[in-house]
Amino acid sequence: MRRGVALGLALLLSASLLAPGAARADDPWWGRDKALHLSLSAAITLGAYGVVALVDEREPLRFGVAAAIGAGAGLGKELVDALREDGDPSGRDLFWDAVGVASGLLFGWLLGIVVRAARGEPPLVGSW
Description:
By secondary structure, the chain is mainly alpha-helical. It has helices spanning 2-18, 32-55, 59-83, 91-118.
């Protein structure tokens, strides 16, 4: 499962670097649009992680489902942009989506550790 998550993030990052919009001069690396991509991808991923955590304790499942949903949202948005006549797909947007997915996974995992510690429960050992 870890390999799947790593592969998904690697594909998202490589798609961002190879996408046609990656080198456009009017598509800056920094800006409000990029902050939105990062924050929304992180929020979607963290939300998916939390929903899966409510029904299953297996960490690989949480990571896999959350990463797939977060990455799927970012890729889907860029696909819609590519298919729309007035859309502007961006490889740089995909890059920030990938950063958001990774951030959402990290926050979800850390939050799980904090919640288990607050409940006095032992950490999930061997769940990977």
